[in-house]
């Protein structure tokens, strides 16, 4: 796909006069960084501090803020929202799946219902009672178990597993290696061994959810595990049984949410955070990386540390902790001085006693 300057300005939603020079013979066939760009690439510079990098770049054109310095030799396209506009253009170059139609090597149960223009890769398995919406893409090696529902325009990349009864909404994107609807981790001790508790619920994922590679979203023991619309989940995230994840939540890599917990709308859970079972993280809350959440977090609060507590408190404690080595040295020095003072005092007392005896 190739765009000329007027077409790029249209995608950026700026007038042609925003480009300098406006008559440049421009052909853009990709996007790139300033350092790696070639003559067919569009780049982004967000601050005037990048002027030297822009001047040195081989990019065909650069999207810049309206107050960016004038530079010779570069095609600058000025925008009031350069970042947003740049990524609108980038969307035009987004990867398009090479899977076309239904592979002869896919296994599709005759009771499955496929919508229009569905693409299914080689070695994918579509089980009984599955319903696949229009324009869905199912990558090679995927498994869709009995009664799975896949909403329109969703993409399931290679080697994704959707276990029985899992429901995905429209425009979902599930990256390779993720398992949705596997058994929750439920056991009870019967006095002799851990007895498995049957996991009879399901997973419901609403519209516009994206889940990264090698994630696990477990089915509920009873009822449902639910991820609400617009939530984005990074790679290597664990969502346990009966968990409820709100709308537009961000879950960053290696975070884990234990069973029956709640994460409110718009919350941000940073990398390697552990959320204990039956805990509620309120809407808009933010949990810093590697924190351990052991009790409820109120809405809108930023917390950090293990156990997670208000970030200001944690930072004060960490600052105090950093002073401990110096404090210990002072204490040890003062302890030595006290010992010396004690010896001197004892010597003076002995002198006084000796004088009084004479």
From TrEMBL:
One term under GO cellular component: membrane
EC number, UniProt record: 2.3.1.191
Domain of life according to the entry: Bacteria
Keyword annotations: Acyltransferase, Lipid A biosynthesis, Lipid biosynthesis, Lipid metabolism, Repeat, Transferase
Span of domain UDP-3-O-[3-hydroxymyristoyl] glucosamine N-acyltransferase non-repeat region: 27-91
Molecular function GO labels: N-acyltransferase activity; UDP-3-O-[(3R)-3-hydroxyacyl]-glucosamine N-acyltransferase activity
Active site feature: 241 (proton acceptor)
Keyword Repeat: yes
Gene3D superfamilies: Hexapeptide repeat proteins, MurE/MurF, N-terminal domain
Biological process terms in GO annotation: lipid A biosynthetic process
A Pfam family it matches: LpxD
Catalytic reaction list: a UDP-3-O-[(3R)-3-hydroxyacyl]-alpha-D-glucosamine + a (3R)-hydroxyacyl-[ACP] = a UDP-2-N,3-O-bis[(3R)-3-hydroxyacyl]-alpha-D-glucosamine + holo-[ACP] + H(+)
Pathway: Bacterial outer membrane biogenesis; LPS lipid A biosynthesis
Tagged with keyword Lipid metabolism: yes
Function as written in the Swiss-Prot or TrEMBL entry: Catalyzes the N-acylation of UDP-3-O-acylglucosamine using 3-hydroxyacyl-ACP as the acyl donor. Is involved in the biosynthesis of lipid A, a phosphorylated glycolipid that anchors the lipopolysaccharide to the outer membrane of the cell.
Entry's family note: Belongs to the transferase hexapeptide repeat family. LpxD subfamily.
HAMAP family listed in its UniProt record: LpxD
Subunit structure: Homotrimer.
Name recorded for this polypeptide: UDP-3-O-acylglucosamine N-acyltransferase
Organism: Thiorhodococcus drewsii AZ1
